[in-house]
Write a structure and sequence with these properties.
mainly beta; Jelly Rolls; six-stranded antiparallel beta sheet; three-stranded antiparallel beta sheet; 3 helices; binds fructose -6-phosphate; binds manganese (II) ion
């Protein structure tokens, strides 16, 4: 019996400090994978010429994919900047546009940049330890690390959400989060 519970604990455990989530598939994104995401193309090329560091990792668990099922994942976004712009995720809309998502901050400091697809309206939501961010459907979303330690977060989304990177990559988010006098400032791109 005890063995059974131990194996269940292993099967369903999450450890944000060790960036571990059982049963998931890991995706690793490096600086070179984020071509066109940062505002300052000159700083991006200069940074890439010095190396291709890992910017973030995501472990996604997809237990089932029927109607009403959920997927979930643990993300870790490392601290850093390209020029004055903080490290960020590519950002996406869900392929099933009406699919929302819940992000739960675990460690670190940062934000989520949300952009309504139809109106183009932007919202910056704090994401960090103990913060919950609800991403409504029809909303492009991107995670940004403004701190000095890795930002880890847990995300839960409908199994049929999917990822559409193309639509937002074509025009990019309308706002950028840059450091000015040591503070994050949201500006028009
Ligand atoms: C899933 C989701 C997150 C992101 C992760 C990486 O719907 O929003 O798990 O996939 O934060 O960001 P992207 O996918 O934009 O590279
Ligand atoms: Mn998403």
């Amino acid at each position: 019996m005890l063995e059974h519970f131990q194996s269940l604990a292993e099967k369903f455990s999450v450890n944000p400090d060790a960036f571990a989530l059982s049963g998931g598939r890991e995706v690793v994104r490096c600086l070179g994978d984020l071509d066109g995401c940062f505002r300052d193309a000159v700083s991006y090329s200069a940074a890439l010429a010095c190396g291709n560091p890992v910017l973030y990792r995501v472990i996604a668990v997809e237990p089932a994919s029927g109607s009403g099922d959920l997927h979930y994942g643990l993300g870790i976004l490392y601290p850093g900047k390209v020029g004055s712009e903080y490290y960020l995720t590519k950002g996406h809309l869900h392929r099933t546009r009406e699919a929302g998502e819940v992000y739960i901050g675990q460690r670190g400091e940062g934000f989520m940049l949300l952009e309504d697809e139809a109106s183009g309206e932007s919202r910056l939501e704090t994401l960090g330890a103990g913060r919950v961010v609800y991403v409504p459907g029809f909303t492009a979303h991107r995670t940004i690390n403004t701190g000095t330690v890795p930002l880890t977060y847990f995300g839960i989304y409908p199994a049929n959400a999917g990822h559409d990177y193309g639509a937002i990559a074509e025009r990019n988010f309308r706002k950028v989060l840059v450091e000015e006098a040591g503070q994050p400032v949201l500006k028009d791109r």
